[in-house]
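Changelog note: in this version the structure field was regenerated for every chain. One regenerated record is shown below for reference.
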Amino acid sequence: MAIIQGRPVGILGTGMSLPERVVTNRDLEKIVNTSDEWIVQRSGIHTRRMASAGESNASLAAVSALAAMRAAAVPADDIDMIMVGTNSPDTLFPGVAPIVQSMTGASRAGGMDVQAGCPGALFAMAAAAGGIASGIWDNVVVIGSEVMTPLVDQTDRSTCVLFGDGAGACVMGPWREGALRVTHADMKADGSKSDLISLPGGLSALPANERTLREKMHFLKMNGREVFKFVSRELPDYLANFCQSCGITCDEVDWWIFHQANIRIIEYVCERMKIPMDRVIINLDRYGNTSAASIMIALHESLGCGTIRRGQRTVITSFGAGMTYGAILAES
């Protein structure tokens, strides 16, 4: 069952942080054989943010976390756990979360990273909801944070035009009046498709050596065509079944927050599900694919500008390397 039982769980506040550097499609035209028209037509992306010297995964994550804590009016001493969904940690160990714990002054909190592809932050939200509902924790900071651009081959136009850097965060805790209530969550994986998106080199399977460097194995590898096929085939039925398990129909969902990977994927899934595009939150045109950060940034912006209003239902869904995917239902 997808229902979250026990103590009601709410999203108490959100925040985000973006690198200062804006990279346009015109900028990329100077680096690779591409064009603004080609990029927009295939992805819907116009600009993305790219981290510069002095901007790290942990620093972006910490800024977004502090903003979420202020919005939630929850002081650092009241945070019990920090979870960071990320695929681009500054170092494999230590993880990002313990560093954020120190940077935010949350001295009582534990910290752990969730590495589950682009749904990493969504998986972290589901885990946090379970811990809060059961009473393990009271207040959990969930962050999606990525500095993906150093992991992308900037001479490969099939990937370098897609990804950007950034972080988004929320504070989750016992639901209170005015907060977005998280009522249902579900997580899935299909490891038989784990080769569709990968970063093969540099770790224990293929330690860094002359060959891995020469063959650029330390950069992200993605079979975009097969990813599109997988998501287009799996996500519509999965989301319809998820809504059914929540006791609602897709038509009763007011807002959809999809992983901001590619506008063509979102449009195809919505067409299959007969979801009007005016009920879909879109910001990938400005930020590109920020991997695990994308749903958190979109959630923050949609709440901050008043798009999501009282009495509405929102489904948050993501997919990514693994292949992993999942969904959360929240009610305002």
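Spot check on this record: The domain at 1-332 is CATH 3.40.47.10 (Peroxisomal Thiolase; Chain A, domain 1). The mean pLDDT is 97.
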